[in-house]
Specification:
- By secondary structure, the chain is an all-alpha fold.
- The longest helix is centred in the middle third of the chain and has 134 residues.
- The N and C termini lie far apart (195 Å).
- The relative contact order is 0.03.
Length: 136
Amino acid sequence: MEEGLEASFANMMQQHAHHSAHLRDRVQTSKKAALEAAAVVSDLLVESINGGVQEVFVNEKQIEMEARSMGVTVQRFSKQTSQWLNVIHTFDSALKEIGDFENWIKVMEYDCKKIAGTLRSISESSREQQHTKASS
């Protein structure tokens, strides 16, 4: 009986060892599959993030180019506006000069009329005096 018990115990130990080895193999296979799956997920996540980063980088470069282009356009418009302001200022000054000239002409016309009126009065007065002297 002792031999049967020992044989049974040895058989149980052998089955246990065999079962433990089989479980170890399954654990190793599952561990290897889990690591491979984790690597795939990690690669997909990195790829997804890098794709977004790359898209952002391309968009940033495009925005920078458009900003530079707009800056050049703004400078051109600013220069053109400055030129227009100078033309308008020159035109305004010319209009003021024309107004000043017209005013000077009106003053001269008024002065000439006054002088002509005064000369006429003097002339008429002088004729009357001569006419009065000749009549007397």
